[in-house]
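Here is one chain, start to finish.
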Amino acid sequence: MSCLFVEQLTVIDCAYLDATRGLVGESWIVDIELEGDLDGQSMVLDFGEVKKRLKRAIDSSVDHSLLVPGRSAALTIAREAGRTMLRFTSAHGDIEHHSPDAAVSVLDTDVVTADTLTAYLRPRLQAVLPATVRRLGLSLRHEQIDGALYHYVHGLKKHDGLCQRIAHGHRSRIEVRIDGQRDATLEADIARQWRDIYLGTCEDIVSDDGERIHFAYTAAEGAYALTLPRGRVDLLETDSTVEQIASKLLNKLMTSQKHGHSITVRAYEGVMKGALAAGQC
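Its structure:
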């Protein structure tokens, strides 16, 4: 048999529920190996077919989804009329999430990890492969980041694609330059303040009692609602696109730095993509 591989086939940008950390944004790079007999083209499977079949299967299942540990004692979940309603108790407080079924992936596990997600994905990917492929190698890994990073969750109600889902997220690096030089201290400060944060849009707030914030909106897929402990949220007056996130960080830094310095913020949204904002204070 022959073996073909594809490194970084795609990136899964998602969120998951964790009893210790709460609602966590995540980005996993997907690598695959396919082992099997050669076809009439002397290929295990054409690369175009690999990308089309497997990436489509990932996009339609877990990408931009909320991953839920279905066997966790912290979880209460119900599904009715195409909708999923859940409550999850974390060390930071209760989390409530209501959405169309497609926005939630329930894993048969008590904790979401790269390994449990791999086990969830494997049969779904195998189902779209031809019988000539005898073995599927599947691994999920983090981007190697030399410096500060943070995990954030958000939802973009105006987006026509999967980003409209109210609880999807990213594991992202952050770079700050003052007069062209990286400032590791400022980067670490941002990462610490935004560790496992939800970046919400003010106009999506339905209620805020000082302890919990309730967000809700209707997007193309349907109605979404999310309730989180107040301490796990930071708010934007704008949509929480990466362009607006970069601008928010720049504006915050410009108020704290001495006059006469140039500031550049390079904010990432997951792996190898993001937005840049620059200004003079």
